[in-house]
Amino acid sequence: MIQVLFFAQVRELLGTAKLEFSAQGINNTEQLRAALAAQDDKWAKVMASDKLLVAVNQTISNWEASVADGDEVAFFPPVTGG
Amino acid sequence: MSQLPTIRVQTADFDVAHEYELLAKDNSDGAVVTFVGKVRDFNDGNPVTDLTLEHYPGMTEAVLQQIAQQAHERWPLNFVTIIHRVGTMALGEQIVFIGVTSAHRKAAFAACEFLIDFLKTKAPFWKLEAGDTGSHWVEARDSDEQAAKMWQQD
Question: Which member of A58, A77, A82 has the closest CB to residue B62?
């Protein structure tokens, strides 16, 4: 399973902070994004945002990064701390 | 000398005088530069009543460590302290503390500015502002991204 986390607006729009997703057929972040988007219209809309960022195992990543069973993948908007 | 950075992500407030004391204890340092970010009463012309900071536990601390490490590599620094609060903060409250020491002021000023510019664009924190018309997530600013880009080395 892949541990999937959501933060800030992304978490709020989806109504979910965390879920487990089967790693079957998923080899990279883009495939995970597409699989999540395929769930329904709400997920499709959030996952389609061109501002969406992804981190794999707590490191900012891109849409080609490898994802495998046991990884932690987080989706979130641009950061606004400080 | 170069000390390990102090990195803290916490809900509690911090005491600037105490943090200064910890930073200023080595007499080989001639310069101590500190920055404090506060909750202000407006953003984009709208009144703000309070602010909630969300973060990504684990990743946040790791990113702050990396940023502190980069600052140590670029300037001859001694102490580096980064404290960032999370949770809900009222108007006027302190959000973030950056403290840097060095033998000379130029390195300390530059490193302090570098740290806040990088923190604002790289560390996984998100601001939710509450005002008279409800609450909304703060949009990332292009000007912050530009400020961080200015530090990129050729």
Answer: A58
Residue of A nearest to B62 (CA): A58
Which amino acid would we find at residue B122?
K
Query: What is the C-alpha separation between B80 and B2, in angstroms, rounded?
Result: 9
Q: Say which residue the tokens 């407030």 belong to.
A: B13
In contact, B86 and B109? CB cutoff 8 Å: no
Rounded to the nearest 5°, which phi and psi values hold at B84? -130, 130
C-beta of residue B87 within 8 angstroms of C-beta of residue B124: no
d(CA B101, CA B34): 9
What phi and psi, each to the nearest 5 degrees, are found at residue B27?
-75, 0
Q: How does pLDDT run along chain A (82 residues), one tens digit per residue?
A: 999 999 999 999 999 999 999 999 999 999 999 999 999 999 999 999 999 999 999 999 999 999 999 999 999 999 999 9
Give tens-digit pLDDT for A61-72.
999 999 999 999
Nearest to B58 among A12, A58, A79 (CB): A58
Which residue of chain A has the CA closest to B59? A58
Domains of chain A by start residue, with CATH: 2-76 (3.10.20.30)
Domains of chain B, start order: 6-151 (3.90.1170.40)
Question: Within 10 A of B131 (CB to CB), how many other CB atoms are there?
Answer: 16
Q: Which amino acid is at B84?
A: H
